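dude i think i finally got it to work??
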Amino acid sequence: MIPSNQLLKLHGSFNSSIFSNYIYKILSWKHYYNIFSCKVALFASGLVFSRKLVDLAVVATLTTYFTDDSSKYPVGKAAVFGNVREGLSASVEILLTYFSVDAHFGHRKIIIHSTVYYINGMVVMCLVSAKLFSRSMILIDIFNIMGVILLAVGKAGVEFSLGPFIAHQFRSHKPQPIVNEDRVMARTKVWWGVAWILSVVSSITLIGSWTLTFIITSSVMGMALILFLCGIRFYHQSEEYEDDVEYHRPFCVLRVVKASLLKMNKEYPSSSDKFFHNHENQLELQPQLKFLRWLDKAAIIESTCDQNEQEKLGRLCTVTQVEESKFFFKMVPMWIAFFGFGLLLSTGDAFFSEQGNNMYGSLLPVLILQHICKQVCYLYDFLLRKWVPEAIWKQAKIVRFWAGMVFSTFCFAIAWRVEVHRLQIVELDETIPMSIFWLAPQFCLLGLMRGLIQEGLEEFMTDQLPDSWKNFVPAMNGFVIDGIGSFLSIVCIYGNRSLFANPLNSSGLDKYYQKLTILGFVNLCYYWFISTLYTRSSNTHARKVCDESQSTIATVV
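look at this
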């Protein structure tokens, strides 16, 4: 039998080991996520905070600015202005992705210029909200259009460059051989999270007139820009793309289509050596899909003239270029499913804030709730990566998108019924006897929609497309969801303009929501059908295409 004093020692050592283990885990976590390890990134912290503050205080409720007393736009026109801003931002981001390969057009310069545009946009709208042009509706329209364009360009540039810039500062802080890319991204996300929390706390003080909101937010962003400029001499140099040909490869899609159309009457070759740079000796290029087989003709070598001459004339493409273009077109049916989703998302962003503008209480609590629901979706990846085997991880991502589609349908079904109830009890031009928290369910679902689909789509598309396209994936996804979705929303608003009137209380927003609920269900059915194609397909050849690309480029150049 063990003496009692030895039992006490064993018990103490056991408790001590558990305590030490917890201390070690806490210290390891602190070291892994320590955002203050890179002092240089502190100079950019002000811009991270100010950008989040503007998103919450200005961008999220921009529709209510256009229906305010200063502009007095009908709700339909106000929503169109908001959608134009969002669509332009997504389009500008595509252009920035293309032109940022220029060595003289790095992230730092984009951040500086975009922030200036951002501030000027808010200053222009501040002049309108101060009723300096109240006697001229034409001047109000002109200045609002200027403000929307400046906000769109500024927001696109800051969103495009600020995250990669901070990540590069964390990455360059350590010697290259010991850079931990996962830790770099983890610290960047923590930095973003801290900025969001601070912006939420600060936005509570901005409950007031639009003029005051614009003055405070533009001043905060101006001071953040000054802080950013103070750190210029300490920043690590931005990374430059070593090979513009490789980086521009996604834009070879049009070249491949053109070459294929020019050779549409040609027969498919019976020998693999008839394909240009056919390293694997294929007779049918990957991915082997019947409706994309015609693109193979772009790589057929014509015997009538020299190969270099055929390339210059746009009549010949490499096998790698054709295969990558086929992988791109393979994803188009999936992207089409997100057109409808983007329409619903843009409609929610445009109308939900206006719907609660005359209710009891501030919009801020439901906006915060929406952002929290969006962030909660990060737990989906965290938990599933621990519990789901790697073999079925792709199917799990497909299910994630399906859940987002389901939430989008429920979101507008709930918004429709809430609007029906609101119109039943409201009196024209009076404050609605309803709490703002009636809108909490639809704002929560809107956040879940964006979190489940928008945050997961980048990883899915990166997995499906060759690695050489990965720099373009965020911009392409943003254009599909926010860009095309916003432009479709504009078309739908004009197609149903008889439903919208000023004020909102005399409009038919409930009928519009009903139509979108039906559209959401149809889109869900389409996605359910189309997703089966991607659960069966494999992306292994996409990786192989990328592995061959370097030798192909070297040969072509």
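The chain has three domains: 36-240, 244-326, 331-557.
im so relieved honestly
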